[in-house]
Amino acid sequence: MTMNVETYHIPALLQESIDGLDIQPDGIYVDVTFGGGGHSREILRRLGRNGHLYSFDQDADAERNIIADDRFTFVRSNFRYIKNWMYYFRVARVNGILADLGVSSHHFDAEDRGFSYRYNAPLDMRMNRRAGVTAADLLNDYSEPQLADVLYLYGELKQARKMAASIVKARQQKRIETTQDLMDAIEKFVAKEHEKKEMAKVFQALRIEVNHEMEALKEMLCGAQELLCEGGRLSVITYHSLEDRIVKNMMRAGNAEGRVEQDFFGRATAPLKVVNSKVIVPTDEEVERNPRSRSAKLRIAEKVRNEK
Predict the structure, then answer these.
(1) Rounded to whole angstroms, how far apart are CA atoms 210 and 249?
(2) Structure confidence by residue, pLDDT tens digits, 62-77
(3) SS3 assignment for the chain
(4) Tens of pLDDT along 109-128?
(5) Residues paired with residue 298 on neighbouring β-strands, in sequence order
(6) Listed range (115-119, 142-146, 189-193, 299-303) with the worst mean pLDDT
(7) What is the distance between the alpha carbons of residues 55 and 82, in angstroms, rounded to a whole number?
């Protein structure tokens, strides 16, 4: 069955994020998070006959949404390799890059993928099911300190150490294989009144670790800075504080740590300049139509133009 954008994923901040790219009809653009193709279709709608769009996705499910258009190229890869792939396609500079960092509705709703605690399913959580370790592998093989670090750093969970100890104790009885196994192992440390929020943090932490999301994001943003032409735009939608902090720092300072570097004259040397000083968030109407867009934040930056 072919999925369309409405069944696979409703794109957040669609018009705002594409407007932020300031599309040039004959330009070259990259959508590093293709998913259901919603953002890609809008970019193509604004491109002229000589424009081109490259879209990345490592998930095989996204390939069902490939767009039949001579101006479109689908890249089956993690976006961390954006610079390598553009070199492969002999593209030295691009006019704009879009990233929607949210996990698609499709992944949360696919019962067999293990992304959500709503279903009792195998703990997979891999975006690319053709490679890498699963969440179950991680839960059964990581040491207690490693598990605690993942839950604390990526889930910002106050009970991370206790949860990690409980997971290790549970796996000594039997291997943790399903979402229910995990929930049973940590339920005593999850307050009933905050169950949904706390479990969402647990699953977020595991997903980030399984897919190396923070490292991939940093690599993609570094590659984007190099690939953008002068005046080219970077438009990024984030959904949680960890990724938003990295994006904000890269746009303002040129590095993930937010360390501002200066030249001999004391001028900032960051390769990008922020376009929207105030972060863009969904309207009340959009949140009503698409509740999952509630936490979305859009940041836009432009490649610094060299002064002649």
Answers:
(1) 24
(2) 899 999 999 999 999 9
(3) CCCCHHHHCCCCCHHHHHHCCCCCCCCEEEECCCCCCHHHHHHHHHCCCCCEEEEECCCHHHHHHCCCCCCEEEECCCHHHHHHHHHHCCCCCEEEEEEECCCCHHHHHCCCCCCCCCCCCECCCCCCCCCCCCHHHHHHHCCHHHHHHHHHHHHCCCCHHHHHHHHHHHHHHCCCCEHHHHHHHHHHHCCHHHHHHHHHHHHHHHHHHHCCHHHHHHHHHHHHHHHEEEEEEEEEEECCHHHHHHHHHHHHHCCCCCCCCECCCCCECCCEEECCCCCECCCHHHHHHCHHHCCCEEEEEEECCCCC
(4) 556 565 666 778 899 989 88
(5) 237, 280
(6) 115-119
(7) 10
Token couple for 208? 């980030």
Type of residue found at 121: A
Tokens representing 291 are 């509740």
Residues in the chain: 308
